[in-house]
Amino acid sequence: MSERPGIADPAWVRALLAGAALLVGLLLLALPLAVVFAEALRRGWGVATAALADPDTLSAIRLTLLVAAITVPVNLVGGLAAAWCIAKHDFPGRRLLTTLIELPFSVSPVISGLVFVLLFGLQGWFGPWLQARDIQIVFALPGLVLATLFVTFPFVARTVLPLMQEQGRTEEEAAATLGASGWQVFRRVTLPNVQWALLSGVLLCNARAMGEFGAVSVVSGHIRGQTNTVPLHVEILYNEYQFAGAFAVAALLALLGLATLAAKTALERLTGRRLGEGTGDAA
Amino acid sequence: MTVTVTGLVRRFGAATALDGVSFALAEGEFAALLGPSGSGKSTLLRILAGLEGSEAGEVRIAGRSMAGVPARARNIGVVFQNYALFRHMTIFENVAFGLRVRPRAARPDRAETARRVRELLQLVQIPELERRYPDQVSGGQRQRVALARALAIEPHLLLLDEPFGALDALVRRDVRRWLRGLHDRLGLTTLLVTHDQEEAMELADRVAVMERGRVVQFDPPAALLAAPATPFVAGFIGHAARLEGEVRAGVLRFGSLPLPPLRAALPDGPATAFLRPGAVVAEALAEAPGGAPPAAIELLRVTAEGERRAVLTLGGVTLEARLAPGSEARAARGAPCRLHIAGAQVFGAGGGRAEARPLRAAPVL
Q1: Would B208 disulfide with which of A266, B29, B135, B218, CB 3.0-4.6 Å?
Q2: In this complex, how many residue pairs, one in chain A and one in chain B, have their CB atoms less than 8 Å apart?
Q3: What is this structure's pTM?
Q4: Which residues of chain A does B100 touch, with a Cβ-Cβ cutoff of 8 Å?
């Protein structure tokens, strides 16, 4: 141990605090997850896999994957563009945009969903106009995508922005004086400098896009086999007392989340090692 | 290439960074832009590079107006203050960057790019570092990478923004001489921006002194010392001490200060004198000559060259003086001394300048 005795707390204090933190972690985070997997497999693999093979479940999985496949790329581009604008350029309204990016974090997901119902629902602002043209947004795929887009927008922007701001603009300026065009500067300098943070943001964005419940619940309409995503399907199964099925689907969703977390951790280790290679004498 | 700057103005909100800057660089010249921080020198460099716009004025490079020409089309090599190396690229890739982003027709092939990069790394004497990343090399090596990268585009003009700021004092002197040698070999028009007068005086053929957004004097180092154009230049160059006095009938007196009068060809009135450390001589005395001691040595210091100097405070101004030969043994803290002035730059209230000389040659000089 390289701890200095002058500032270290007594051993029992440290043990107590560490123990308490661990206990809370186990009780509140690990135990529920373990319960999900235990419940899913309580009546054996057969029941669990049968629940997953149910057509409604398969349709929910397909829908969730489709929504994620649309929202993640859109938010990747949108989030990156927003972070790039804020970090590398000066324009009026820059602070406002920075605040707006965080809006979905501070607004309840239910409200985010409700907004789209109020806008595009039958009684909504654009409802009659949309109905006249036979365009269905709420209670259909577009609504799910919009709600998910809104809720997951901050993830990419918020992971990339601090790094871009810390790196400043001098490398971009150097690239410009060396003859690079705007696109070349972005492609060869800006993007590679944030690639790992970007990937990390995309993973988080994807995890949330697949797991989002509140906003999606409002705009979905819960039509089985049509507008039911995986999290919504879990709730339906649970409410219908199909516990094995509910937990099996929940376990699948939890696995997705765990895989994301593992990928993100591996990524951080990888980049940490690369950054740690430096001599550390950069002023 | 020649560079001509005329009446350049740049404002940031209410603050004026450049207030009508004009100067011209000759082909192959090594010039320095010297000024305290906030004098607008970095802004000027950024405008030359095309990274910043200006409200008024004109920049011409090789006779061609740079209005509307973006940074990427100017072909100006820039070594940035903290080098701004591409952190995710190896040193080889950093240097190759300028070649790789060229339009296809002008882009050299792989072998040619590699040959050019290795040649440049040889030139800056770091061929062994090509596979390293910027954060794996020292500050001095990073500076060489930045220089090689800037030279790779075969620039018309080289701009250096405080390039020695991040180096420690020991390396700095060597790197300076090496850089000057490199310039003499390449013959590239070079503009160095710095707040360090020694750096500017040692490196540059001519030094442009900037004061509050203007170039107040642009002359060879020796001329800046011999004939400063403004009180600011006189005070800024050569660590001169500034003292107020009064001219009467061609003689400058420093009121009640224990300084000898000087002959100065200025009209009657108040005047400001600038005394360089080397031009003031302190003659330490065994005892104070009758009455209150005229001046007392506050402390003694040794210069980097090994010379002992006396430091005194006169009328709130700190003055450094050489020790008169023969009186060195008596020099000590608190020792009384008589001051002699070999010469000073004096500016009259009306703006006139004169080189002041002693009324009679002091015997100890």
Answers
A1: B218
A2: 83
A3: 0.81
A4: 188
